Amino acid sequence: MMISARIDRFGKGLAHKPRFHAAAALFFLLVNAVGYAFAGGLDFVQGWGGGLAAVIATIFLVWKSQGYWAWMIVNAALWCALFFHLDLPLLGWLQVAFLIFAFYGMVQWALVRWRIGWNPRIPTDAVGGALGLVFLLYALWTYRDMPGYTGTSWWWLEVVSVTAAIAAMWMDAFRYKLNWWAWSLSNLVFVPLAFHGRLWGPFVMTFVYQTVNVVGWFQWVRDEKQLAFKAESERLEERRASFAFSGRVVS
Length: 251
Known about the structure:
Layout: H1 3-14, H2 18-38, H3 42-62, H4 67-85, H5 89-111, H6 123-142, H7 153-173, H8 179-196, H9 200-250
Helix pairs in contact: 2-3, 3-4, 3-9, 4-5, 5-6, 5-7, 6-7, 7-8, 8-9
């Protein structure tokens, strides 16, 4: 059996089961409890804990589990606290935006189970499109005029990272596989920012969930092929049923 097939079978067998969600939550709580007690207190929870939440979220995203949105809410909440604590209000408010969109994504996936793509004629899709556009415009507006910072190399890295993350979350909600490329771009330019800002938890964890991103890309490509094959099989079955019915009517 190919490695990709084993990953597919393993993930789909666990990612949607309550016990796997419970195990992930228990692991997260234990790591943060130990970190809080012995490795920095609240700073560990906000930085490393937020990064760990992002890793767990990405694992659930690979198999399109609702756990993804739940852990993105945890990640956004912790990093929101982290950035406000470090006096980085722009990044803090952007985490608030991600938090809001994560709630939207959870509702969207509950209403739309398998469909891939955005359809402006569907009300919930239109809401998601509006939210994504608002958050993107907000990001561009907030970064437009920052004396002494706008136009610098660090400014460009931050703008690209933020806008790519907004695009990635929007694509997550509608199951576009290009989300993995957008997340990868955001991660790529975030790494030097985290290192420069001495955000060691986010810095280290970015490498971990970027590795998961690679797995996610191949898994979603595989999923799309399976969905296309299933749709084609259903169309052929409908045609056979239609021809058989027509034959009985003629006879």
